[in-house]
Amino acid sequence: MKLLYFAWLKQKIGIGEEDIALPDDVATIAGLVDWLKTRGPGYGEALADLSAVRFAVNQDFAKLDHPLTEEDEVAFFPPVTGG
Amino acid sequence: MIWVQREDFDVGAEMAAMSGKNVGALASFTGLVRGSDGDAAIGAMTLEHYPGMTEKKLAEIEAEARRRWPLEDCLVIHRYGRLEPGEGIVLVITASSHRKAALESCAFLIDWLKTSAPFWKLEERDAGQEWVEARASDDQAAEKWVATKK
């Protein structure tokens, strides 16, 4: 699956995107967040306060309990500030 | 019509292009880069976006505006990249037979895109670079249109 990070999440994690194999025991965004936090301090820092993070699955906004599959594109970003 | 682009836009030319036989009202909103925030100077800002999702969300917002109001035409241009004070960030133009539909749909489009189109602003201040934080007042402005959903 493809993961994308934007704005300060991209800065803290250090990359804008990556391809990963969805771990067998990860079924939702919440599970993916927990797994990502184990991958390094940058992930831990970026995902420490989830009230400041928004999620999208296949380019639609999604909540933490959204189910995931290997084919999904999942994005992590702060609340939007365009316009 | 939706355009997500690095290039500047020409408000007058875009409005002229949207004039037509059945258009009795053109409403527009232009968002510009401010040079200050209170006492703090802002040197420039860089707009980051999520290519693909941005176009998708803006197209959904345009479709919702066309569903709610009788529009002859509708244009949203949103820029990305580094912009200096005074430069245009976003342009919304709506064309309708009458002013009410044009004015209301223009306000709806800018309110909704501010809370649902994936853009992020990074400001250059004297103290360094700073990500702009989302405002509760923007959420409230968008919520107002949910409450008045037709």
Describe what this molecule looks like in 3D.
The complex is a heterodimer of chains A (83) and B (150). By secondary structure, chain A is α+β, with helices and mostly antiparallel strands. Chain A has a single domain, classed as Ubiquitin-like (UB roll), CATH 3.10.20.30. Helix content of chain A is 27%, strand content 23%. In chain A, strands 2-1-5-3-4 form a five-stranded mixed beta sheet. The N and C termini of chain A lie far apart (30 Å). In chain A, 25% of the residues are buried. The mean pLDDT of chain A is 97. By secondary structure, chain B is an alpha+beta fold. Chain B has one domain: Aldehyde Oxidoreductase, domain 3 (Alpha-Beta Complex). Chain B is built from four helices and nine strands. In chain B, strands 3, 4, 6, 8 and 9 form a five-stranded antiparallel beta sheet that branches. In chain B, a hairpin with a 2-residue loop joins strand 8 and strand 9. In chain B, helix 2 packs antiparallel against helix 3 and helix 3 packs across helix 4. Chain B is globular, with a radius of gyration of 16 Å. The two termini of chain B are 22 Å apart.
CATH topology name of chain B, in short, is Aldehyde Oxidoreductase, domain 3
How large, in whole angstroms, is the Cα Rg of chain B?
16 Å
Strand tally of chain B is 9
Mean pLDDT of chain B: 95
Relevant terms:
heterodimer; A: 83 residues; alpha+beta; Ubiquitin-like (UB roll); five-stranded mixed β-sheet; 3 helices; globular; B: 150 residues; Aldehyde Oxidoreductase, domain 3; five-stranded antiparallel β-sheet; 9 strands; 35% helix
Report a brief summary of the structure:
The complex is a heterodimer of chains A (83) and B (150). Chain A contains 3 helices and 5 strands, in the order βαβααβββ.
Any chance you could write out the topology, listing elements then pairs?
The complex is a heterodimer of chains A (83) and B (150).
Chain A: E1 2-5, H1 7-13, E2 17-19, H2 29-37, H3 41-46, E3 54-57, E4 60-62, E5 73-77
Parallel strand pairs in A: 1-5
Antiparallel strand pairs in A: 1-2, 3-4, 3-5
Chain B: E1 2-5, H1 11-17, E2 25-32, E3 36-37, E4 40-49, H2 53-68, E5 71-79, E6 81-83, E7 88-96, H3 99-116, E8 119-125, E9 128-131, H4 136-147
Parallel strand pairs in B: 1-5
Antiparallel strand pairs in B: 2-7, 3-4, 4-6, 4-8, 5-7, 8-9
Helix pairs in contact in B: 2-3, 3-4
